[in-house]
Fold:
Amino acid sequence: MRFVTLHCNWIEYEPKVKAIENAEKIEVKRNRVEEVLTILTTVERNDDEEIVDKAVENILEIYDMVKAKRILIYPWVHLSSDIAEPHKALSLLKKMVKKLEDKGIEVYRAPFGWYKAFNVSVKGHPLAELSRRIVKEREKKIVVRRGKKKYFIAMPNGEFNDPSEINLNQFNNEFKILVEKEALGIELKGGEKSKIIEYLNRFGFEWESYSDYGHMRMGPYASIMFDLAAEYSRMVAFNIGIPVYGVKGTAFFNLNVKPVKEHAELYGDRLYTIDTDKGSFVLRYAACHQQFSMIKDWNISYRDLPFGAFEIADSYRYEQSGESELCFRLRRFYMPDLHVFTRDEEEAKKWLLRLHNIIMDEMKKLGRNYELLINVVNPSQFERYKDFIIEICRRIGKPVLIAVYPELGLNYYWTINIEYHILDILNRPREIGTVQIDIGNAERFGITYIDENGEKKYPVIIHTAILGSLERYIYTLIDTALRMNKPLLPTWISPIQVRIIPVKNSFLKYAENIALKLSKQGYRVDIDDTERSVSRKIVDGEREWIPYIVVIGEKEVKSNILTVRIRKDNRVKEMSLADLISLLDEEIKNYPKMPLYYIPHISSRPGFLTIS
Structure:
């Protein structure tokens, strides 16, 4: 179904001549409807009542946004060449009207099967003219599973236990809850709104109401946090100890291309698709398609291996709209995707362990620890990987949960996949980082290397996002901050690192001089020059979790010694500017720096940057 919506001051229409032999029987007269959302609608061949439901949902969303008073359904066959049979189209249009009326809306319908003359006055705002196409979700590929996933708890001493037959109270709470949810299917208690969402909103992470479900927008504070996380993910990826090549590419891949189609079928049921004049396309769900399509054209020798390819890939997954969660479950998100190309499975295992260590270390930097869920593709691979899994257990010094998939009858592309989970403040296991070994896609996409004997071989590929998606990494930062007595983001990713508060306007020049010197060192500094009390300015700085607040008064100007409120230590300390710079240098070494994305003087900013 396709339709165009027009938010009208008024529309007049008059049936003139029958367009089809079995046109709807009507009283021919001129009609006028005022203050109306007009829906010019074409019903297509494959439409059904499910499509009507989706169309009604979209129409209601637009109706609410433009604040129309009534709706007119106006049959208009000109939006598609793939039109439904007349009797079917009329039936579905009548159902659409009934469903809208059931919502308590005043609805009109123009006659079906007639050429009509019409005059219209369309309002001139940005939402007055919109278009939609409503299509069915792609049918999910039905896979007959021979049995269910089987779960084990692997212990560092080499034991494998059935989760239903072991006392879970011997484990830490995070691991216990992970096992209960994943292996035992125990439903988590819900209903409580997470503070994480409240603070994500405060920092400018929001849903975009003009877009599809699960699409975010980011204000200036959120934007700089995102860009810093992106740059840090790049720094981590390019420092794993092998050559890593940065690439960029498209998000659209043709489902008529055999490897793309096969990979999509193996991926599962969350494909985000779009139809164009070239055919059906899948929006990529990671950087795999682009990197594999590119690297298949490279001339690779065994001497080049291992190497990595990296892209911060805008990725798309058609999550259920009701399950979308800000910064965590999104239809569009950004994956700092690293693929490591190795000679064979044994070399891949060694590199997986190295990447595993990096992933664990990155979470330790935040004062957190991961719990592991290791997925193994089938029982035979589980037997092959048992010793490898125990090695991982020994490295982390604690148990891991294992899920062994049943035989699916599919040429699945991975053998082992590790999910790295935290437990958020609502006691929900949350997958953040990931790593897996891929033995199928090199052959599928035609990626080869020449070995020592001059023969073509297929490399084994490791997929990883060391930090997780950028949005989930930020989710983790906020979750971590909210666990502290005094919430605090790491200084390197705090939108404002230093706020300077002059006690009086007469000290503003001195404050600006301090701010300039800090800015030249690469630090994000702003000045609260508003006409408010000092105590109120300090409270606002605290609400923004600013790590360092510098108060400038007469004493500071005369002595050249700064009075600094240090959020991390919850104390006030006097220090020189050089000492403050040294402190910041120590905290932020090995992390990226970026300038302000906003005016440094708070009094000159629009209201969108007022967290308080």
Observations:
- The radius of gyration is 29 Å.
- Residues 139-146 have pLDDT under 50 and may be disordered.
- Residues 2-133 form a domain with the D-tyrosyl-trna(Tyr) Deacylase; Chain: A; fold (CATH 3.50.80.10).
